[in-house]
Amino acid sequence: MRNVNFLVSLIVMFLSGEGCRLKQPDTFLIEYHTSEIQIDGDIDGMEWSRSTTLTDLYSPWAPAERDSTIFRCFFSQKYFNFCFEVIDRTLTVLEYTDEITVAKGDRVELFFSPSSKLSSYYCLEINPNGYILDYKAQLYRKFNYLWNFNHRDIVGKITSTGYVVEGRISLSELKKIDIDLDKGFCLGIFRADFTGENENSVIWYSWLNPHTKDPDFHIPSAFGKCKMKQL
After folding, report:
1. Would you tell me how many other CB atoms lie within 10 Å of the CB of residue 135?
2. Which of 19, 65, 67, 136 might form a disulfide with 13, Cβ 3.0–4.6 angstroms?
3. C-beta of residue 74 within 8 angstroms of C-beta of residue 33
């Protein structure tokens, strides 16, 4: 009976998506490189091969789904550089009319916050064509869509297997919103995968498990602690 109970526990852990995941470090260390890159959607360069890499997005609300997104990032002298490589056979991309269009289809997302309090945090949502929705927010779900990142370069490319997003945000702008690279800051890494024409047919993927009944990335538990890796 003891062996049966143990087997049942293992099955429950696997189905919940927790049993096959490595424990996340307390602080996500991000690489630093002195060289700058050109933002063109080509992520085969040496800098990306030496970047900090995350391949463990998952959906706590749809544990049977498996995500193949690769997220990479690194700091350079002037920028926070990032890219997403997404495998998606069912792309949902609406014709762009305004920023809100981005929120109605497939996209990847980065949220930045100076602290886990989320008294002010800054959101960047990017669709496969590189169009963005950016805004400032406060806990809980108080959005200011008039706010924008002023110094960012972003390119999106649809590929034969999904899409690639490559971008960078200036360190001077991150400093202005109180993102401290050395002491650390909070980062959210997410993806929305629409699987049908219904706006509710979407699978939400996250770097961390927010431990909520329904998908919600606008809470402290959806963010992880990050800082620049010391040389």
Report:
1. 18
2. 19
3. yes
Query: Which letter does DSSP use for residue 25 in this model?
Result: P
Does residue 11 come out as left (phi exceeding 0), alpha (psi in the -120 to 50 range) or beta?
alpha
CATH of the domain at 204: 2.60.40.1190
Q: Per mean pLDDT, which range of 20-29, 176-185, 202-211 is the poorest?
A: 20-29
**218 in a domain, yes or no?**
yes
More confidently predicted of 147 and 13? 147
The three-state secondary structure class of 121 is: strand
Number of domains in the chain: 1
Residue 8 lies inside a defined structural domain of this protein:
no
Q: What is the pLDDT of residues 42-63, one digit of tens each?
A: 999 999 999 999 997 999 999 8
In a domain, 95, yes or no: yes
> Helix, strand, coil % (nearest 5) of the chain?
15, 35, 50
| Tokens 């789904």 -> residue | 65
In this prediction, residue 25 has a pLDDT band, given cuts at 50, 70 and 90, of low
Q: Is residue 63 situated within a structural domain?
A: yes
Question: 121-126 and 107-113: which strand pairing?
Answer: antiparallel
Stated length of the chain: 231
Residue 13: pLDDT band (50, 70, 90) is: very low
Q: Which residues span the domain enclosing 200?
A: 22-228
